[in-house]
Design brief:
The chain is mainly alpha-helical. It has 8 helices and 2 strands. Helix 1 (24-44) crosses helix 3 (84-95). Residues 1-22, 140-214 are annotated as: Disordered.
């Protein structure tokens, strides 16, 4: 008599007992990003604003928002690109309130712009990165060049129902309709109609050869 070997089932995982492992770098990024983003949106007046870390100087010139209390002198780098020990210092500065966004006047921005250009010339600041231009920026789409290539739903609402060029045959049909209208008017102008009476008509009732008609 053969005995069957049963494979033991894996133990069931209890709900709510497992712990999710979170990266330390992700935690520090949230500690930096969430408070600074809230300040940036409040000062800028837009609820969906995003901090342009790679183009922060352009945002400073446009919105007059300056990042105060950044713990590291020299060139500014995106906090997400820093090493873990430096990221911890930036997160600590944001949490204790020493690193924050501040709105300044236009005169202050002009002074900072002059100092920023000097720092770039001396190598203490990174020049702003150029914006990448899309490869199809000046390309016209096919739907604008040829409206007939659009979908049927768009063609019903966009394209005209009448032909763009009126042919000569259509003009001839219009002329014939006008001629018929004028002829009807001329026939309506007839004033007298002659009536034929039976006494005036001579009818020969005698058939000379009735068989030949058949």
């Amino acid at each position: 008599m053969s005995s069957t070997h049963r494979v033991p089932k894996p133990p069931r995982r209890r709900k709510g007992k497992h712990t999710k492992k979170v990266c330390r770098r992700q935690v520090l990024r949230d500690q930096i990003r969430i408070p600074l983003t809230a300040q940036y949106r409040r000062l800028r007046g837009k609820v969906d604003g995003v901090i342009p870390w790679k183009y922060l100087w352009k945002a400073t010139k446009r919105d007059r928002l300056v990042l105060v209390g950044y713990p590291f002198p020299g060139p500014f780098f995106n906090p997400a690109d820093l090493h873990l020990d430096k990221m911890e210092k930036v997160a600590a500065a944001v949490q204790n309130g020493t690193c924050y966004f501040e709105k300044v006047s236009k005169e202050t921005v002009a002074e900072l712009s002059i100092g920023h250009q000097q720092d770039i010339a001396e190598g203490n600041a990174v020049p702003p990165l150029p914006r990448k231009i899309r490869s199809d920026k000046f390309t016209t789409r096919g739907c604008h060049l040829n409206p007939a290539t659009r979908t049927k739903k768009r063609r019903r609402g966009k394209l005209p129902n009448s032909p763009e060029i009126v042919e000569d045959s259509d003009m001839e049909e219009d002329d014939e309709i006008e001629d018929w209208e004028t002829s009807d008017e001329e026939m309506g102008c007839v004033s007298e109609i002659e009536d034929w009476e039976d006494s005036e008509m001579d009818v020969d009732m005698v058939d000379s050869d009735p068989i030949s008609d058949w």
